Amino acid sequence: MKRLQYNSPLILSFFIISFIALVLGYFTNGQITHTFFSVYRASLFDPFTYIRFFGHVLGHADLNHFLGNMLLLLVVGPPLEERYGSKTLFVGILFTALVSGILQFVFFPHTILLGASSVVFMLIMLASLSGMKGGKIPLTMILVAVLYLGQEVYAMFFIRDHVANFMHIVGGVCGTAFGFAMVKGKRNH
User: Fold this and answer.
1) pTM tops 0.90
2) Which of 101, 100, 114, 105 has the alpha carbon at shortest distance from 43?
3) Cα–Cα distance between 99 and 177 in angstroms, integer?
4) Which of 31, 65, 99, 122 is exposed most, by the fewest CB atoms within 10 A?
5) At what angle do helices 63-84 and 117-128 cross, to 10 degrees?
6) DSSP-H helix ranges across the chain
7) 113 pairs with which residues across the strands?
């Protein structure tokens, strides 16, 4: 056990909490997931509404949904955590969760959102900006935006499934904005 390293505390903690949420959801027949780890239109007087604005990124519908998000999170997240630090990346995750949670709450009152997809897309776009130097936009970021986000726009209009493509796009926009803010912040120091 001495050789194991908790190398990415934020990303690994996100993974573990999401896994615990998934297991609790199974054992409660989805009740815990619905109460804490999904966002949907509810009373603003319900204190859980505000928890769900953030908590929805930790909940997943099933093991396949969980694995699809977590595999990308575990690949893309650790290098970004190393580059930007746990606290900074945590702010980006909270920002993305809140923005996607509020947008879901306001614009999609008849559907439920859960899953880390918006966070994963935020990380992907942030990663594509990691090589940005001298205020020049990396070609990789443009290609990722066109291919990945373009695929989401296409799916949003032409594929009928239960995937929240709009929230994937929101996550990508959050990652891009967060990435530009990080670059601008470094230039100002």
Assistant:
1) no
2) 105
3) 12
4) 31
5) 40
6) 9-27, 31-36, 47-55, 63-84, 86-107, 117-128, 139-144, 150-158, 165-188
7) 39
> In degrees rounded to 5, what are phi and psi of residue 113?
-115, 135
Per-residue tokens: 42: 């509810």
Residue pLDDT, tens place only, 25-77: 999 999 999 999 999 999 999 999 999 999 999 999 999 999 999 999 999 99
Amino acid at 66: F
Residue 102's nearest CA partner among 152, 66, 49, 149 is 49
Structure tokens given for 43: 């009373």
- What are the tens digits of pLDDT across the range 134-170? 677 778 888 888 888 788 778 777 776 666 777 878 8
**In angstroms, rounded to a whole number, what is the distance separating the alpha carbons of residues 147 and 40?**
29
Q: Which two tokens stand for residue 7?
A: 């190398």
Alpha carbon distance 51, 115 (integer Å): 14
Q: How far apart are CA 114 and CA 56, in angstroms?
A: 5
Residue 78 CB neighbours (<10 A): 17
Look-up of token digits 């505390």: 9
